[in-house]
Amino acid sequence: MKTLGCVIAVLVVLVGASPAEAASGAQVGIQDDAWLLHGPGTLESRLDELDRLGVDVVRYTVRWDVVARQRPATARDPRDLAYDWGSVDSVLRGLRRHGIQPLVTLYGTPRWANGGLASNWAPTEGQLFGDFARATATRYSWVRLWSIWNEPNKRSGSARRRRLHTSGSS
Fold first, then answer.
1. What ranges in 39-115 are assigned the alpha helix state H?
2. Which one, of 131, 127, 115, lies nearest residue 80 by Cα?
3. At 29, phi and psi to the nearest 5?
4. I want to staple 35 with a disulfide (CB 3.0 to 4.6 A). Which of 17, 39, 154, 163 is the partner?
């Protein structure tokens, strides 16, 4: 009798269940910086492919250590001659042209900002990163989605060991 009651309960739930539907605000997104920058064909053909796939959002990493290999004189000014926005401009402006929303992740400390260490080490002064973030946000004022450093950071060891633990961000 208990089994029959369970079967009836399951049938009631199944009959009353409505079909699953996608959330109206769901977006399709990808991240593949290497493919965007160096994949087959041209950047435009790769952006066309994203259009064909129905991609709404692309997460793209802006590498501070690549954009600012030399220390800028006026770090908050995106027009400072130390900044090289070349490939960033190409990708972000291409995404915009295609109506694809970028989610920009800022990552990678230049050696001049962290005492000569690798790019996954924190800057010696937080203001240095803040100035770069400001310059980037000013240059790409139309970007609405931002993140920093990709992975949660955690302290380990002494203050001198300020390595940011990331898992292969590029």
1. 43-53, 64-67, 86-97
2. 131
3. -140, 160
4. 39
**C-alpha pair distances (Å), 136 with each of 73, 96, 103:** 15, 16, 13
| 156 belongs to a structural domain | no
**Structural domain total, the chain:** 1
The tens digit of pLDDT for each residue in 61-105 reads 999 999 999 999 999 999 999 999 999 999 999 999 999 999 999
Residue in the structure block whose two tokens are 């400072």: 80
Whether 126 contacts 64, CB under 8 Å: no
Task: Find the radius of gyration of the CA atoms of the chain.
Answer: 23
Residue 92 falls inside a structural domain: yes
Q: Which domain holds residue 89?
A: 26-148
